[in-house]
């Protein structure tokens, strides 16, 4: 194969970084790829051709949709603030569905997964999108299994990524599939990316923030969980705090939050652990205890299951350092119990 044809579908109001992030990855591959490798040929098509203004004002020159005929290696669909209008553009949706049938693989960034779902391409598949819109996507497309956690999901020949910058991570994964891990890592280093994240990386604590319930007893229970993560937190005790029977509490909690209470507790422990790993110099054992894990081994298993990394690996990649070079100190509660 002499080249891999990448066709990017653009439309008025699309997010510029959804487009430019992945294509910079592909373009950098072309500049660093050995002569024997298959380069990427990048094309832009749009119903708004020839000049398409993104939501930030960046203008992209694109060809009409007809220019996208023929076999496609990678079809790339971005999101954007004008997504509602794009979803109502039947010419665009129909073309995406038809072009996907001619594509070796189909990828979306952020809200671009809505366009794939609207075309019926994600029915029966797992997919993700920006954490703020996962609930809306799941409601609108019940045949799609929407997972709010990963930064990108690969299901068959369809790859959906989460919010904005995760399109870069997804593009690196595509490069790794095409050219191997060594070149993908070289590209990440050349672009001065902090790291090359795998798809199992979580979309950070924003997922948990978005899940605070409207139902007062459940919201109070969530807040109590956050304040007492160092304790065992059996579900029966949490239900008692909410003045509800165990069975009713479990049912209402899952309805309001979208996950069983036990699973929510573990995810909240992991979120707190990530925060401490990022912003303190506590030992791994101290982090485990402050997040309510009975033993470091339990912490390692839960953390690895959630993120695909060990706590030490996560700290190495994400630890926050202040301008003075000192690790950001723990909050008051952490300092008082140090």
Structure description:
- It is a single chain.
- This protein is an alpha/beta fold and 338 residues long.
- It is built from 16 helices and ten strands.
- The protein has helices at residues 16-32, 83-87, 90-101, 112-118, 134-140, 166-179, 181-190, 206-209, 216-227, 235-241, 246-257, 261-279, 284-290, 296-307, 311-318, 332-336; strands at residues 3-9, 39-45, 51-53, 59-61, 72-77, 103-108, 126-127, 145-146, 152-155, 158-161.
- The strands form three sheets. The protein has a six-stranded mixed sheet with strand order 2-1-5-6-10-9, sandwiched between helices.
- Helix 1 runs parallel beside helix 6.
- The chain is globular, with a radius of gyration of 22 Å.
**pLDDT averaged over residues:** 87
Distance between the termini: 59 Å
Overall geometric form = globular
| SS summary, helix count | 16
Content-based structural category: alpha/beta
State the helical fraction: 40-55%
SSE succession: EHEEEEHHEHEHEEEHHHHHHHHHHH
Poorly predicted runs: 205-210, 321-338
* Rg calc: 22 Å
Strand content: 5-15%
Q: Please give the oligomerization state of what you see.
A: single chain
Q: Strand tally, please?
A: 10
Strand order of the largest sheet: 2-1-5-6-10-9
Q: Summarize the biggest pleated sheet.
A: 6 strands, mixed
